[in-house]
């Protein structure tokens, strides 16, 4: 379930983007401003709004440490703001002075990419704010960009409909032609990849949300899923900090979180973002508002993806119907049988407490329950639940400046003894700030309950 926490009415034009840091929410708009809110109570900071762009602000993103905010605009600039003072730290003019439609920071805070309306890309050294390399795709507009979790490659999407993977030398590693008919609108890497592949979500004017697997060695892309839950162009998508949830916003005025729920908004939904530290989603709309939604504990997936122990009584009823046991639905509802109770059923309880007289029906039900247990059983701990340093199940997962999650004690020890380098990339960590990964901790807790 979700609940609407609050609605922010401060912008005077369409909200184009929203982004969370550990403690702040940033939104940007066609009204040329950015607004910054404290996520503890969604009060606006004293230095907000930020007014430094001459035209519409299309995109904004925080540095992993949360100390800086980057924004880009039709005025052909990308601006770096201090989140301590609200002052401008740097202004980077895009090569060719074309309107900048998208900007993205690497998880290690070393690089930044900006993409423009003329199809050009600029790769910047973020610490020095110096231009490093440029690239281009002819006859299109760059509208989407996302760095991989390792910070070594990035994906771009364009109005032509292609997804293109680049390395830091601006070499094209792969081009997925016609990934979305009529154009890509957004793309985002899942925060933590599998051992040999990355996961990427993309959405477009074709009203589809697609999930891709990208081989880390060959860079070939394979489409894994095509999600058709929205009936109009999908304008934005974002993963939760643990990669377990995916949210998208559409012209059909809905926000969808896969595979949980669909909530109704009032005008076209143009932007969406997950908080990395709390169960919150921010969505921006053409009605000039930003809605803050709270995810209730346990809604990280639909029934088919939830642990059986998390099933509600309604989930159990649906399962009975699917398995051809619909005659038991009323009896199970009358006895309040949820997922936990379902797994604990025995021949004795079926006969003496639920009063199911048919031996054949009791045996069929127990076989189906055993199949459920078998399907739920895991041959090993999911890789994303393991600390990359210790390879043990995490108890207190935290997100480091490189964008990866670690066991707090392990990464603190690593930082104290390894000269502040990233365990995953070997690049320097620009900050030792560690952010609790509450979403991942909850997911681990649910997994442990069922095993």
Automatic annotation (TrEMBL):
<dbReference type="GO" id="GO:0004842">
    <property type="term" value="F:ubiquitin-protein transferase activity"/>
</dbReference>
<dbReference type="InterPro" id="IPR003613">
    <property type="entry name" value="Ubox_domain"/>
</dbReference>
<feature type="repeat" description="WD">
    <location>
        <begin position="50"/>
        <end position="91"/>
    </location>
</feature>
<dbReference type="GO" id="GO:0016567">
    <property type="term" value="P:protein ubiquitination"/>
</dbReference>
<keyword id="KW-0677">Repeat</keyword>
<dbReference type="Pfam" id="PF00400">
    <property type="entry name" value="WD40"/>
</dbReference>
<dbReference type="Pfam" id="PF07647">
    <property type="entry name" value="SAM_2"/>
</dbReference>
<dbReference type="InterPro" id="IPR013761">
    <property type="entry name" value="SAM/pointed_sf"/>
</dbReference>
<feature type="domain" description="U-box">
    <location>
        <begin position="380"/>
        <end position="451"/>
    </location>
</feature>
<dbReference type="InterPro" id="IPR013083">
    <property type="entry name" value="Znf_RING/FYVE/PHD"/>
</dbReference>
<dbReference type="InterPro" id="IPR036322">
    <property type="entry name" value="WD40_repeat_dom_sf"/>
</dbReference>
<feature type="repeat" description="WD">
    <location>
        <begin position="269"/>
        <end position="298"/>
    </location>
</feature>
<dbReference type="InterPro" id="IPR001680">
    <property type="entry name" value="WD40_rpt"/>
</dbReference>
<dbReference type="InterPro" id="IPR020472">
    <property type="entry name" value="WD40_PAC1"/>
</dbReference>
<protein>
    <recommendedName>
        <fullName>WD repeat, SAM and U-box domain-containing protein 1</fullName>
    </recommendedName>
</protein>
<feature type="repeat" description="WD">
    <location>
        <begin position="104"/>
        <end position="134"/>
    </location>
</feature>
<dbReference type="InterPro" id="IPR015943">
    <property type="entry name" value="WD40/YVTN_repeat-like_dom_sf"/>
</dbReference>
<dbReference type="Pfam" id="PF04564">
    <property type="entry name" value="U-box"/>
</dbReference>
<dbReference type="InterPro" id="IPR001660">
    <property type="entry name" value="SAM"/>
</dbReference>
<feature type="repeat" description="WD">
    <location>
        <begin position="227"/>
        <end position="260"/>
    </location>
</feature>
<keyword id="KW-0853">WD repeat</keyword>
<dbReference type="InterPro" id="IPR052085">
    <property type="entry name" value="WD-SAM-U-box"/>
</dbReference>
<feature type="domain" description="SAM">
    <location>
        <begin position="311"/>
        <end position="375"/>
    </location>
</feature>
